[in-house]
Write a structure and sequence with these properties.
- The protein is an alpha/beta fold.
- The protein has one domain: TIM Barrel, CATH 3.20.20.
- The chain has 16 helices and twelve strands.
- The strands form three sheets. Strands 4-11-10-9-8-7-6-5 form an eight-stranded parallel beta sheet. Strands 1-12 form a two-stranded antiparallel ribbon. Strands 2-3 form a two-stranded antiparallel sheet.
- A hairpin with a 2-residue loop joins strand 2 and strand 3.
- It is globular.
- The protein binds ligand FNR.
Length: 399
């Protein structure tokens, strides 16, 4: 029971009241739609063909990306009544970090395709809400530039493990020095998947020098560039070719994980886990967490929907490691479902990128505030005060 004399604490759902009040008393409407599942349509009206082709479509026929979204549709929320949800708490402890909500901004590369300020705008928006910003190795801005934009905000670094060990160590060292606390190693992209939208244009941003800022600002990469081209500031095309040489790392195996431990003293999370055996291997190798993710369907066409992979993985290893989730999260209700199925926190991908495309930092903040408001309202209306109370019993699986 709530003490009638104590006002309830501020909730993320207050964002809803603010929108209604602005409409009622000032005749203002939100600059961007609050229908988060519809953001893609709006962003598509704004982005040019190459940017749209890189961001929105997925591998092959797009069937994995469709399956990701369809999997959320099949799980339905079962609301409970009369359970006093006046005081709700969305805070979460994720791998030792206290967060206002179990949501992170997942690693997304080449954000300058969406907006000129790219990752800097995203890092600022994440910091404004106190949510972790995960900086991609494929970013349009360097590790240090994004750290400066993130300021006091929490930040994690995502590694695409390059074939050159010296370059790998250099990237890790720079990330640690710039205040990134957690490391996410993306395992599902040791080489690029088959992406017809880019192939039909013959377009890969990296080969034009876009999305390789972490490399061109790196002393080890620059030394190699100088050796091969005669100058560390070679033209973008030459830098892109050297990148294309160091990026693919198809020989990687589980045996090499100790190398990362030697060079990173914070928590390490493996991204791209889609089955129980690999989740078990991650635990056996002493990893601190996993991200159940299929890269938003951008790597393997016809792959299992990430949400379909989640319950068995959470059941098998959830008590021994931190289970994060992404791929297909579009709304606050989707976050609710992933948490109920065993995720400790959720990484947002495309939706915040659409917000970035539409309105820069303000657009990313808009998406985050709307998503958290909807999560808060969904929790309360379904009869829960905290995501910690959620179990699979909060959901019904339709055939
Ligand atoms: C990504 N993703 C990604 N992941 C990663 O580990 N490093 C990266 O550089 C990128 N880059 C990237 C670019 C773009 C344009 C997209 C859409 C995605 C994958 C990302 O972290 C996440 O796994 C997916 O975005 C989740 O799928 P949805 O929810 O966005 O469909």
């Amino acid at each position: 029971m709530t003490d009638a004399n104590t006002p309830p604490p501020a909730h993320f759902s207050d964002h809803q009241a603010l929108i209604y009040a602005a409409g009622a008393f000032r005749g203002e409407r939100p600059a961007l739609t609050t229908d988060l599942a519809n953001l893609e349509v709006r962003a598509a009206e704004k982005l040019d063909g190459a940017a749209l082709g890189y961001i929105v479509p997925s591998a092959g026929s797009g069937s994995t990306a469709r399956a990701n979204v369809a999997a959320f549709e099949r799980w339905r929320i079962v609301p409970r009544m009369l359970r006093d949800h006046a005081r709700r708490d969305l805070s979460a402890t994720v791998l030792g970090s206290e967060l206002p909500a179990p949501v992170l901004l997942g690693p997304v590369g080449v954000q300058r395709l969406a907006h000129p300020e790219g990752e800097l705008a995203t890092a600022r928006a994440a910091a404004a809400l106190g949510l972790p910003y995960v900086h991609s190795t494929q970013a349009s801005h360097s590790i240090e530039e994004a750290a400066e934009a993130s300021g006091p905000g929490p930040r994690w670094y995502q590694l695409y493990w390059p074939r050159d060990p010296e370059l790998c160590v250099s990237l890790l060292r720079r990330a640690r020095a710039a205040g990134y606390t957690h490391l996410v190693i993306t395992l599902d992209t040791t080489m690029l998947g088959w992406r017809p939208a880019d192939l039909d244009r013959g377009y890969l941003p990296f080969l034009q020098g876009e999305g390789i800022a972490n490399y061109t600002s790196d002393p080890v990469f620059r030394r190699r560039l100088e050796k091969e081209s005669g100058a560390p500031d070679a033209d973008p095309g030459t830098a892109g070719l050297l990148f294309a040489d160091v990026f693919p790392n198809t020989g990687l195996s589980w045996d090499e994980l100790p190398f990362i431990r030697e060079h990173w003293d914070g928590p390490v999370v493996l991204k791209g886990i889609q089955c129980v055996p690999d989740a078990e291997l991650a635990v056996e190798h002493g990893m601190d967490g996993i991200v159940v993710s299929n890269h938003g369907g951008r790597q393997i066409d016809g792959a299992i929907a990430s949400l379909d992979a989640l319950p068995a993985i959470a059941e098998a290893v959830g008590d021994r490691t931190t289970v994060l989730f992404d791929s297909g999260v579009r709304t606050g209700a989707d976050v609710f479902k992933a948490l109920a199925l065993g995720a400790d926190a959720v990484l947002l991908g495309r939706p915040y990128l659409y917000g970035l495309a539409l309105a820069g930092r303000a657009g990313v903040e808009h998406v985050l505030r709307c998503l958290l408001a909807e999560l808060d309202l969904t929790l309360g209306n379904a009869g829960y005060r905290s995501h910690r109370e959620l179990t699979p019993e909060a959901l019904w699986h339709t055939a």
